[in-house]
Design a protein that fits this description.
Blueprint lengths: L1 E2 L8 H4 L9 E5 L6 H16 L4 E5 L1 H5 L7 H9 L2 H11 L2 H26 L3 E4 L6 H14 L5 E4 L17 E4 L2 H9 L8 E3 L6 H10 L5 H13 L9 E5 L8 H14 L4 E6 L4 H9 L2 H15 L8 H4 L10 E2 L4 H10 L9 E3 L5 E3 L6 H4 L5 H7 L17 E6 L5 H7 L2 E4 L3 H9 L4 E3 L8 H10 L2 E4 L4 H12 L2 H14 L4 H26 L1
Parallel strand pairs: 1-7, 2-3, 2-4, 4-5, 5-6, 6-7, 8-9, 8-14, 9-13, 14-15, 15-16
Antiparallel strand pairs: 10-16, 11-12
Length: 539
């Protein structure tokens, strides 16, 4: 198999291609169905500009511009479906089939190829790179026809931006090379797409250049030098504490997901277990949520959660696969940390045990409440009165240990949309996030253990397996925030476990993937350009 070397200590000037005579004109085919596709394209574009000075790029959504219904409403449809996982599951499973693949291939080529070819030609690119599954089969045909029309090779490459699993439409094997992020996707490309192994390059997912820089600066996260650099970054970020364990909580650029309940649960558990810590919450563009964290009465949160937990007599709801066994039914609450991940996820999907859209929280008094309920899990779980709360729980101040001897001092910091997320990941000891492939790759690049809390069925369930089987994280559904909190606290109180998770993450991390992919594509493109020039000169 063709494979890019991921050992990158070579200086930038040594990487500049000897084949380069000018910058490249790159056309990326992408769509804003989630932030990952555009982020991957822009990460690659940055590297092209660094490696091949004078390069320019454009992003083109050919499905929206030149597509036909229902494909040209992809962006709008994705926003709706991603918020309703049960509907997304149905659409994904139907479309990820051989029958649909053949139908879509024939339909799109018949109805859209001429318009797509015209759009691509209008940019006069040197190379076309697809970072979206719906922009492979038709562009491959268009690039082939443009090559014949112009008498010079127009190469096309696919960079698969999924990690643990991938949709069948990614695998149009007429591309010159296909870059994949994992062995799992490589196997899918060969089995589902019949892509020849020699065309597949295992390179990692392209992530932003900041992560390569921070990875180089951080080095070994667990070493004295790594810890010293971490504290330096915390100071630069002006975090309220720099010498305590730091948990980074993310929900995407819009600050979506059950962030509020997860943060409440972690605050309560950290205080209750006497763990001093900082919780940094990336609220994205959700300014309302950021203000809520700044104004929240944490004493009240602590009292209510502790009272509800004491009434249930709950000490640890963590479920490992070793305990449940392969035949057990895994409920939504609990955590997946060891083998048997795929079977567990499939059981959860078959039972509807997802964290959004029609799923439920198991309440402390045995009732069920949908996750659309505006109340928090404590309100849903037993309607604890104020008098009961005051009697059954010890009040503790958010930033103080004065009220009780063994309570943890916990700070909660909500921040808005940030562009320097790599620095926040360096500052963190644990990441709590949804199972997005880009976020997982970014965390691995910085040796950061990750607690996954939600995933889109089909598209992202393989990412859970990738993390758990890779040994650098676990999955706990965001419908059970206390299970998330308990597992995170367990990691923080077990330095050996946390170090193992970090070292496993480092093994999976490929911080220089974008640079390596850009280098390979650029070199091959110049080879094609030089060959075309020779043919034209001889004719």
């Amino acid at each position: 198999m063709a494979q890019i070397c991921v050992e990158d200590t070579v200086k930038m000037d040594e990487l500049l291609s000897s084949k380069q005579t000018r910058g490249l004109k790159i056309l990326f085919l992408s769509s804003d169905t989630g932030g990952g596709h555009r982020a991957s394209a822009e990460s690659l574009a940055k590297q092209f500009q660094l490696l091949f000075p004078g390069s320019t790029y454009d992003l083109l959504d050919i499905v929206e511009k030149d597509g036909v219904p229902p494909y040209n409403s992809l962006v709008k449809g994705y926003k709706h479906l991603s918020a309703h996982p049960s509907q997304w599951k149905l659409v994904y499973n139907v479309s990820n089939s051989r029958a649909f693949e053949m139908l879509a291939d024939a339909h799109l080529k018949l109805m859209c190829e001429k318009a797509v070819r015209k759009s691509i030609k209008s940019y006069d690119p040197d190379v076309v790179i697809s970072v979206h599954p719906l922009m492979t089969n038709v562009p491959v045909l268009s690039c082939s026809k443009i090559t014949k029309e112009l008498g010079k090779k127009l190469p096309m490459f696919t960079v698969v931006t999924d990690l643990g699993s991938a949709h069948c439409l990614w695998f149009a094997n007429g591309v010159d090379k296909m870059f994949v992020g994992s062995e799992q996707v490589k196997q899918l490309a060969m089995s589902r797409g019949k892509v020849p192994e020699e065309k597949i390059v295992l390179a990692g997912l392209p992530i932003r250049h900041d992560f390569a820089v921070q990875s180089e600066n951080l080095g070994d996260r667990m070493s004295p030098e790594g810890k010293a650099y971490q504290q330096t970054v915390r100071q630069q970020l002006e975090l309220p504490v720099i010498d305590k364990p730091t948990i980074l909580v993310m929900g995407g650029g819009e600050g979506v997901g059950s962030l509020s309940h997860i943060v409440d649960a972690m605050y309560v558990e950290l205080v209750s277990q006497g763990i001093d810590a900082l919780i940094v919450v990336i609220c994205g563009r959700n300014e309302k949520l950021r203000k809520e964290f700044a104004e929240r009465d944490w004493k009240h949160v602590l009292n209510r959660w502790q009272a509800a937990k004491q009434r249930m007599g709950l000490t640890n709801r963590f479920l490992s696969m070793d305990v449940c066994g392969p035949q057990s039914v895994i409920p939504s609450p609990g955590c997946i940390e060891t083998s048997g991940v795929t079977g567990s996820i499939r059981r959860m999907l078959s039972q509807g045990s997802l964290s959004m859209g029609g799923t439920y929280l198991t309440s402390l008094n045995g009732d069920k409440a949908t996750t659309d309920d505006k109340r928090d899990p404590v309100e849903v779980s037993g309607d604890v009165s104020e008098s009961q709360t005051e009697e059954e729980a010890v009040p503790v101040d958010v930033n103080s240990k004065n009220d009780t001897e063994n309570a943890g001092s916990v700070h909660v910091l909500g921040v808005g949309f940030v562009s320097n997320i790599a620095e926040y990941m360096v500052a963190a000891d644990i990441l709590v996030s949804k199972a997005g492939p880009g976020t997982i790759s970014e965390a691995a690049a910085l040796s950061l253990p990750i607690m996954l809390t939600s995933f889109l069925p089909g598209q992202e369930e393989g990412n859970v397996e990738y993390v758990v089987e890779g040994g650098f994280g676990a999955y706990c559904s965001d419908s059970d925030p206390m299970a998330i909190a308990e597992e995170v606290c367990m990691w923080l109180t077990d330095p050996t476990k946390l170090e193992q998770l970090s070292r496993s993450a480092k093994i999976k991390g490929v911080p220089y993937a974008a640079r390596n992919i850009a280098q390979a594509i650029g070199d091959m493109t110049f080879d094609f350009l030089n060959e075309s020039q020779k043919v034209n000169n001889s004719s």
